[in-house]
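Forum: Protein Structure Q&A
Topic: Joint prediction for protein chains with partners

I've read a bunch of threads here and the consensus seems to be that you should model interacting components together rather than docking separate models afterwards. I'd like to see that in practice. Below is the full input, 797 residues plus whatever partners are listed. Could one of the regulars post the assembled result?
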Amino acid sequence: MLSRVAERLYWTARYLERAENTARLVRVFSSMMLDLPNGVGLNWRQLVDVSGAHEYYDSNYRSCGERNVIKFMLSDMDTHGSVISSLAMARENMRTTRDLVPSEGWEHVNELYLFARKKLTGKTLLKDRHEFLSEIVMRCQQITGLLAGTMSHGAAYQFVRVGRNLERADMTTRMIDVGSATLIAPGMELERLENRLWTYVLRSLSAHQMYRQYVRRRIQPDQVLAFLLQDMIFPRAVAHTLGEIASCLQDHLPHSEEPLRAVLRLQRLVAEANAEKLRAGGLHDFIDLLQLEFGNLHQLISGTWFSLELDEAV
Amino acid sequence: MEIEWSTYDPGEFYDEMISSPGNPRRAARAIASYLQKLSARQLGRRQNAADLAIAEMGVTFTVYSEGTNIDRTWPFDIIPRIIPLKEWSRIEEGLEQRMTALNMFIHDLYHEQKIITDGIVPKKLISGSKSFLPQCIGASPRFNVWAHICGSDLVRDRDGTLYVLEDNLRVPSGVSYMIENRSITKRVFPELFRKHRILPVDDYPAHLFDMLASLSPRPLDYPEIVVMTPGIYNSAYFEHAYLAQQMGAELVEGGDLMVSADDCVYMKTIDGLQRVDVIYRRVNDEFLDPDVFLEDSALGVRGLMRAWRAGNVALANAPGAGVADDKVIYTYVPAIIKYYLDQDPIIPNVPSWRCEDKVQREYVLANLDKLVVKPANESGGYGMLVGPHASAVERSKFVNLIKHNPRNYIAQPTLGLSTAPTICGQHVEPRHLDLRPFILQSDRTYVTAGGLTRVALRKGSLVVNSSQGGGSKDTWIVDTGGN
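Posted by a regular:
Agreed with the consensus. Here's the joint model:
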């Protein structure tokens, strides 16, 4: 298959996953702001930092009030990673690969984008935010399911799968970062607060039930962190997403050696992490390191399949 | 909307379905009586079924002037246009004759230019033509054929005479609509296909593949053939994707291809670089290769002309082939046929005036209100003047245009294009139409059975282009038996 087509499918999946997870992130942060007592060190600025686009924010927005941050995360067409810009990019990429994807796939993505554009008005942003975000999450999942269930699992689908899992790994670490960002908060009843915080993080990833079922404990921060980083069978855990990428590369795609090495290294890094120690100090830096490595992996994937230059292949 | 042929009246125009009110033509008799038996509701339901089928198939085209890419469904009328096989066979011969002569002409222009030396076509006409590409001089495409895919527009005047209105030798589009229209009609009127002998059209992609394969520089049973598109924003993107899919060829953009030091063309795939043998390019000449033509073209491939001249890749149509569909050259086609084939043209040209000739120009300027004026180098109905329908301001604008650059304009009488019954709201009314058959040529020639009938949906309108409010109909070549 053509490199360009592979690249577009990969980005379609990444942007869809990014839209879904950004919606999750904003949803959980909004509830936390409502539920947690004032003065526990939580503020909207942290959401900007977690998004990874704080430089853009600082040069385009003045204050870090709720209204600005929500606009930045959801409806700013120029933010790389806002819900609306992610959906627009998913749509643009899929538009040009329509012939490789079942037609319902294109229709749903198109409708989802139009829905979001229509709904993203001031009223939705402030009043009906929760319902709106839940619908975005559900519809993104619908599309992911549709592709998994109706697209032949050949090379084209493998690029969808790689894109989805790499983006998911990245976004899960950002959710974890929400937890770590507030660790520094001084105050009373820290332990109880922290438990509640990690419950939110679990919920934001729809991981609450699976955590209970498989870890079989009450919410315990170290255990939650270990679950989200290292669980091999929970689909949004970092270790699982890396396993998925490794399987795509190893079993289905040609010339995958370089990116595969990077995935295996990442897998080791995650497996050897010690949740307890990280939580005691250095979690944010560890998350930064992982995100850097995800970026590196992307470069290798891009160099291997998307941007062939003459000297590489003849 | 029940059809009553005795009250259907095309007036002064030649109608493709009836010869006079109440009298269907011989080849159309069976379908006319069948349509008459349908109730208004039945007919309406079938038109709806067709509209639905079109939406389902995603048959869309994009209109340039709308700026952003808005997909719009292409209006389709379910009543087919009928042409008897006997008449068609003659047209087919005429198209093959025309295409053969035009290809000999193009090859001659890029080599000895004998036709100029012999005084048939003036030299300044060629040297002044934007479509004559000096970069192609001396090139020798396989079989000396330059225009491999041609869509010639045919029109019928009041008296029933069929003319070639123009030849599209660059990147003619519309063939996918011809094929889709047939598959819709089959769903809407299956019973008619059992009763009639209607020539099939769905073998076009197979013929296209065979023709392209015959151009391959490497003798392979399945050479690497690609369809090269300018991309999703092009008005015919749907067709590019459709043909690629039907032929099992990759649909590529300029950025997917590269020319290496060995002067071969490669496409970038996830398995690495793969050599390409034949490019069915739907990108205009000037965008093909930024090294040779427009420097800032992002649609083309650097070095493509070098690879083509070296004979390592075939381009269909060959660059420079457009020199023969210049509207002024068009006026010389009967002479061109005579010169190369020593035959009289089977299908006549529309009588035309050349504005570069002083006497003819004066006639044109004095009769603008009766004539159609066409620029030499535009397609899709852009930049032309339909005198009888134009305002005084538009006409005076053209007086200036013609005086300023006479070489660029020809004029033709306003033809009374033939009509065919078309569903218009609750009624069936005559609407004007044309016909675009598609001709493939390499070492052999293939002509589609019929082609794309385009119909002007606005009452009285003569403009059938999809970009200007036209629709289409299925075209049936009906075999009525005998000779």
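The first strand of chain B starts at residue 18 and ends at 20.
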